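Friendly challenge for the regulars: who can give me the structure tokens for this chain first? No prize, just bragging rights.
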Amino acid sequence: MSAEETLKQIADEVSVCTSCVLHKTRKKSVPGEGPANSEIMFIGEGPGMNENEQGRPFVGAAGQFLDQLLAQAGVTRSDVWIGNVVKCRPPENRDPMPEELAACNVYLERQIEALNPSIIVTLGRFSMGKFMPGAKISQIHGQMRKIGNRFVIAMFHPAAALHQPQLKTTILADFAKLPQLLDVARKELARSASVAVKEEPKEEPKQLSMF
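First reply, four minutes later:
Bragging rights claimed.
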């Protein structure tokens, strides 16, 4: 099954999922969207009111700010994959509960496996916590770490600027560094791939039997 087919199958499963209580109040699930060959994957927290109505991620006020941030960083939204750690809206936009995160993590892991992105940008502390448990976003925002065979960049959620206007300058500054971070990640991944190719064991020449 291709990555595109896998992502479509996951989206279909999410639309009828009843694994946690969030399904009881959803209008539309929000599995995420973007090209199946995306190099960069953005992971937010959960759908809001507008997302719940449209079934698409980041289409409200936070989404508009994210579009602005991406444009500033020279990243085209249509070239990246965008989703959330939970696929249905938590009532009143409350924080997702541990059991809700666990239920949706099954889908998120499959999406990551299908996309196999080189770079994951986490938006907010809940998606950051998936990759950097125990870290504080106030201390590592705008920073990049290599986790496994990919890079993870921790960013504040765009909605934080709407609730705490004093954070807007910080978020703008973090995203201004995104092109440089992406360049570093790409060069490091290319170097690692080159080293791996050089270190591949060469096949020993087969001995011809004289008998």
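The beta strands are 40-44, 81-84, 119-123, 144-147, 150-155. The longest strand covers residues 150-155. Your move, everyone else.
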